[in-house]
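EI: anyone free to look at a 354-residue chain?
SC: sure, send it
EI:
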Amino acid sequence: MTSRQSKYAGWLIHILVWAVVLSMPLFAASPDRPLMDAYEYLRFLVLPLSFMVVFYINYFFLINRLLTRHRIASYIAVNILLIAVMMTLVHLLFRYVLPPDIMHRPPRARPFVDTVMFFMRNALMYILVAGASVAIRMTGGWYKAEAARKELEHRRSEAELQNLRSQLNPHFLFNTLNNIYSLIQIDSLRAQTAVHDLSHLLRYVLYDSSRPIVPLNDEISFLKEYVDLMRLRLPRHVRVDVVFPERSGVMVAPLLFIPLVENAFKHGVSYEEPSFVRIRIAVDDDSVMCETCNSFFPKSGAVDRSGSGIGLANLSRRLEMLYPGNYSFGYGPDGEGGYRTHLDIYLKKQDKRL
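SC: here you go
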C-alpha cells in the first residue's frame, strides 16, 4: 500500500467509525422504545459532536505541538481546560438551546451526588476520547516511522548490494584479462578467440545480470563459456571435470557461482604439477547446490595477479543480503590436499519457477 493509499484508508476508517457512532439510535430502537424524532436526535448529536471536537483538536494540534515535544504538563492542562469548556458548552446547549421536551419527558430533580457523578462520568468519557486520539495518532506515527525505517534499510541494502555487484564486475574482468594475457604468450591465435569469447561473457555480466533474478540456465551457459575460456590456456596435466544440469526453470540471483569457479581455477591450477578442478551444480525441488573441488596451490601476494581476493568475502555478503537464512555456504581445505567450496541455496516457492 502506498502512502497515499494508506492515508485514504485511514480517513475511511475515521468516517466509518463516526458513522457507526452517529447511527447508534437506529440500532437501539425496539418495540418498547421507538426511533427518536428529529428533535431528540438533534439532542443526541450534541454529545458525539463534542467528542469529535475533543478528538480532532488532540489529533491535529495538541499531540503534535505538545505531547510529541514532551510538554506533558502543558498537554494535560490544555486538555483539562478543553474538556471543561466542552462540558460547559454541552450543558448550556441542553439547558437553554435544546431543553428537554417537557411534553414527553418532564424534568426530574437530581440529587447533588447524582449530578456530581453525572459530570464525572461525562468527564471520564471525554478523557477516554482524548486517550483514544493519542493512541491512534501515536500508532499511526509509529507505523509511519517504521515504514520509513524499513524503506531506508531497503535503500541502504540495495545500495550495498549494488556496490558489491560493481566490485564483482571489475574483479571478474581483472581475472579473465590476466588469463588472456598469459595465453597471449603461449598462443596468440587462441588468445584472439578468447577475446571474442570474453565479449560474450562481458555482455552477460554488464547487461543480463543487472536483473534481480535470472534463469539458472543463463547462469550455467555463462559458466560454461567461462570454463571453456579457462581451458584454452591450461596444460594437459590439468584435469577439469564439469557437471551441470540439463535444463531447469529455477530462478536465482545472478553471478553467485562465478566466484567459486574463479577461486577453483585461481588456486587449483599448477603449470608444473598434476592438478584438477571439479565443478558440479545440481538442482532439486527445494534447492540449488554448487560445489567445487580443486587441487590446492595457494598464490602468494608476490605472484598472485588474478585479482584482489575479494571473491568469497563478497559472495558471503551477497548471500546474506539476498538469501538471509536460506543458504548454506562453506569453504576450506578438504583434508586431502585439496580445497572445497559448497553452496546450497534454499529456494522460496515464488523463486523456483519462471
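EI: DSSP finds nine helices and seven strands in the chain.
SC: 👍
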